[in-house]
Specification:
Tetracycline Repressor, domain 2, DNA-binding, homotetramer, Arc Repressor Mutant, subunit A, mainly alpha, 9 helices, 2 domains, about 200 residues
DNA sequence: GATGAATGAGATTTCATTCAT
DNA sequence: TATGAATGAAATCTCATTCAT
């Protein structure tokens, strides 16, 4: 026998905590239902607040969604970049990054949905948040590839191209796995992906 | 004051031609506005028909959209596979396929949007049409990779994995280029991608 | 194994026959689906003609429907009045009329639906066709009741009132039976109804 | 040029009151325009609310309509049965019921329309609400007729039949008056109807 | 004349957003 | 400040009617 303990009618919390609650709920609901089908009321319920509160903290549904995506992107970025700097060898940095990238999506499968949704619904915005973040980090990664080249461990390709390739490869892998309904964790494939990247299929 | 020169009167056409007109218009409008924002009336105008005609030939907006995606996928598949069989060398087959794959999206940039939209809006459907088609062709491509392995031109990776990798790579490349707003044609990169695939960045 | 023998593409029939075919089909479909839900196309199919033909013979859906109701009313009127004049005794005339009235609706249950539909959908028209016909016959029936009164067989009520009462009684009975889902044939009750009418429940 | 003085702003009312407002407006509009032609927006205006409010309180147009009919039926039932129990003599009970039945429809002429509409548009539903209510009350009324029979004041007919007859008679009378456009109040005829019922036209 | 493909007005319903409480 | 009742714009889809063939 469950007892309904209805949410207390009004509660006071610091605004920052409210925001987090709402963004967490939004990530869940947007990922599960898609941007259009997600009902703001449903998000409000999940977050344990009234609709009005959402509209006080976010301009509108679009702003709420973009904040949600941004938060997800921050989490991804933090997860990937966290312990990279402590690694000395650039190849190992790359291998670790791939692994942690895959690992993040294994743990947060909804995040792919958020990225898809963003692009699907906000075609007009300049550039998806994902690619903005990617660009921000580009310089750092480029330098790592250049170091690798200087060490003679990249031969035939320009660092620029290599960076793009790996970006496309892992990005494509995440989408493919998610969209094709693949069940195997991505992170299991990270070594194979890295090997391919470094050695190619002939190697 | 502009004078609208409305579509003259009603014209009769064979059903097949009408379908094509409508699917062409739909591909345009869905790609430009997204599934949700695309107004069926707008598609009708583009196709030069009345709304009713669309609803006579397609059950509803969803069916129209999915037909549009399917048609795009057929076009892609035909474009890629067309002249592959005439090529003898399996490596060359793969290189050509990559090139033609990229080339298709250069010529039909809206197609990526359609694929994104499908996934974004119809999360419930088993599997996106793209992956259904991909699976259909899998056996054929697998055989080519196996031949390559038998010829000793693939060393370290299983044909299965190699196939997945290349799938992810090109798929990711198309998305990346489109989503990141890249302006350079994909097909220009096809050689570099193939080189990476075969030789890796170390090679 | 049935062989589809599709309706020959075009046939020529005298207009009068066409009209009858269409009205028969219309009576069926309108009774089964109701005025609003009845699709003109469906009626055309039932009648074995094209939609255009219907619109050549009838101004519009409304006119078609009203013609259908009128035809039904003519049939009812004919069925009831047919052999009344050959009967000598006025009481027997009334008893026979009641019986034939009920009998008609037993045989043509859809007719009630048509009358209901007419009223439901064409509230604006002066008076339903049923009541127009009823009024036309009123003088004749009034005379019969007056003869009955002159013969001393109606005591306490005016012929006018008696006529109205019986009208209401049988009309109500038909509706009740139909609307309440009664399964017993109306005509079985005609004697009881007539007895009540003549003698009341005390008698 | 008329100046619209639009409903001021939004007001808050208890749900029960809102429901009543809406049902009152719906009864008016459905009776005047018929189920199909009645625009929900029009009902909303009459009720002084927005369309959305109607859809918050009722699942859809159909549910709104059926609630309206049910409410009307409750009102009728209450009006008829109200003071019957205080009457001692069963014949007087019946006479009073007839009178109050007619009186109700004189005061609420639209109610007949609602009943017609219900049947016309929802032919699929098991049984119209009117007949469901009628059946509920049947046992009580049957008992009254049986008491009358025991008192020797009904001779020749079974109580069952007598009850059906009177039901048909008054039901038919209401329809007839309404449909034939009769202007005289029904309640003026109630004595004559009762006399006919008890004594017949011969008596 | 006969057909049925083509048309588009019109009505229901949803849900983001507002604002009275 | 927090709530959720109230709002109404917007979009799908149907089907009576027309008219090219």
């Amino acid at each position: 026998m469950t007892i309904n303990t209805p949410r207390p009618t009004r509660t006071h919390k610091p605004a920052e905590e409210r925001r987090r609650d709402i963004l967490d709920a939004a990530a869940l609901v947007f990922a599960a239902q898609g941007y259009r089908c997600a009902d703001v009321e449903c998000i409000a319920e999940h977050a344990g607040v009234g609709k009005g509160t959402i509209y006080r903290l976010f301009d509108n549904k679009e702003a709420l969604f973009l904040s949600t995506v941004e938060k997800a992107m921050e989490d991804l970025s933090a997860h990937v970049n966290e312990s990279i700097d402590e690694i000395e060898d650039p190849e190992q940095q790359i291998r670790t990054a791939i692994h942690r990238y895959f690992d993040f999506f294994d743990r947060n499968p909804g995040t792919v949905e958020l990225f898809i949704q963003e692009r699907a619904e906000f075609r007009n915005r300049e550039k998806p948040i994902y690619f903005i973040y990617q660009e921000n980090r580009r310089a750092v990664w480029l330098e790592r590839f250049e170091r690798l080249a200087r060490l003679g461990r990249i031969r035939s390709v320009s660092p620029e191209l290599a960076l793009d390739m790996i970006g496309n490869l892992v990005y494509g892998a995440v989408f493919s796995q998610r969209l094709s309904g693949g069940q195997r964790p991505l992170s299991e494939q990270s070594d194979a992906v890295a090997d391919l990247l470094f050695n190619g299929i002939k190697g």
